[in-house]
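wait is this the right file?? whatever heres the structure
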């Protein structure tokens, strides 16, 4: 009970579902209902630490208790657990897909050095060596299972609320008295060959800085949302943030993805990006511009990435941004039916809110295959 603080924390952080680093909430919810869950700890082969450090950090002072106090209380309970000492933590798993390791390391590093963390990227190479870089040096734990980011919840909501229809230029009927743009907004009609992106051009600016040359592609929506406009307390005072805050909202982002055939998924500060899973949820075919993202795919053997992800090599994009994107679209469009079918199948494996989601199954399988031995 000292570790499971979910009810209070979620009440104090109601916006958690719009943050792609909050996968800890969705995965724990699936595990609580999982058929492999047991109530007798003696029968368990894996102990899931029911903490949500990222969401707790965002909740801050909550019902008279700070994040620091919650983590300290949880660490105290964990330290007293006879099951942690039984195998030195080798059979313990913490779920959090945030890069902000400081939200849990100060309290849990002394306890979970032998444990597994379900994280957003793989900090080790296939050889077992740690990847270079400051971020990966923070990974104090023994083993990592890569899990998906949390997808934009409005993708599933909007897809359920309105059917997807063919664009009029592809033979679809036009509703009498309604403009094409109105129909697209209401029924998620995707303009043929259209491209969507909105986000910061300054993250990985050497690459995203070239997105401006894509803004006049037919049917394209490629917009810069300056960093800080959605996070800074004074963002509303900045003129450049007024339109960006509306344009960058989760609902408007989902509607944008749903009304375009292709979504740009560039690398950011690290190779991976939550945009890949949002694109999957909105069935917007991802144009992946991140050479090393594949090394960090969640559940790589079950995600069927090669069937629905269209890769654009960074070097090719850098040499000719517009031509590389147009070429990728030209090659992918004849295969859209097959790609969308693969996305439907992949959604069940990777999306937490998909009907019959197997995300928890896949995490447990990957833990068993890669992290269960030792200790």
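ok assuming it is, sequence goes like this
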């Amino acid at each position: 009970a000292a570790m499971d603080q979910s009810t209070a924390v979620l009440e104090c952080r109601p916006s958690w579902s719009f943050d792609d680093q909050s996968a800890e909430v969705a995965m724990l919810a699936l595990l609580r209902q999982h058929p492999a869950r047991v109530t007798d700890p003696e029968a368990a082969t894996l102990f899931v630490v029911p903490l949500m450090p990222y969401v707790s950090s965002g909740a801050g002072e909550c019902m008279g208790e700070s994040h620091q106090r919650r983590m300290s209380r949880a660490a105290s309970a964990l330290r007293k657990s006879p099951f942690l000492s039984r195998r030195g933590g080798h059979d313990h798993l913490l779920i959090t897909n945030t890069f902000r390791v400081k939200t849990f390391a100060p309290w849990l590093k002394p306890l979970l050095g032998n444990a597994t963390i379900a994280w957003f990227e793989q900090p080790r190479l296939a050889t077992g060596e740690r990847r270079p870089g400051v971020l990966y040096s923070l990974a104090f734990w023994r083993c990592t299972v890569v899990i998906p980011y949390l997808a934009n919840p409005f993708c599933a909501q909007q897809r359920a609320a309105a059917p997807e229809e063919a664009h009029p230029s592809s033979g679809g009927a036009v509703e009498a008295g309604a403009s094409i743009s109105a129909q697209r907004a209401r029924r998620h009609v995707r303009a043929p060959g259209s491209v969507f992106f909105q986000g910061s051009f300054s993250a990985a600016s050497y690459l995203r800085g070239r997105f401006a040359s894509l803004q006049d592609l037919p049917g394209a929506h490629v917009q810069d949302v300056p960093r800080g406009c959605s996070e800074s307390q004074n963002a509303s005072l900045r003129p450049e943030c007024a339109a960006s805050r509306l344009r960058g909202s989760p609902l408007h982002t989902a509607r944008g993805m749903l009304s375009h055939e292709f979504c740009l998924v560039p690398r950011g500060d690290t190779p991976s990006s939550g945009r890949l899973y949002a694109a999957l949820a909105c069935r917007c075919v991802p144009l992946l511009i991140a050479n090393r993202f594949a090394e960090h795919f969640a559940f790589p053997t079950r995600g069927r990435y090669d069937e629905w992800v269209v890769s654009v090599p960074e070097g090719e994009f850098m040499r000719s941004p517009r031509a590389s994107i147009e070429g990728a679209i030209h090659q992918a469009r004849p295969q859209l039916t097959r790609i969308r079918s693969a996305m439907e199948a992949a959604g069940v494996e990777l999306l937490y809110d998909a009907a019959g989601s197997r995300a928890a199954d896949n995490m447990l399988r990957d833990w068993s295959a890669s992290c269960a031995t030792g200790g």
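The mean pLDDT is 90. so i think its the right one actually
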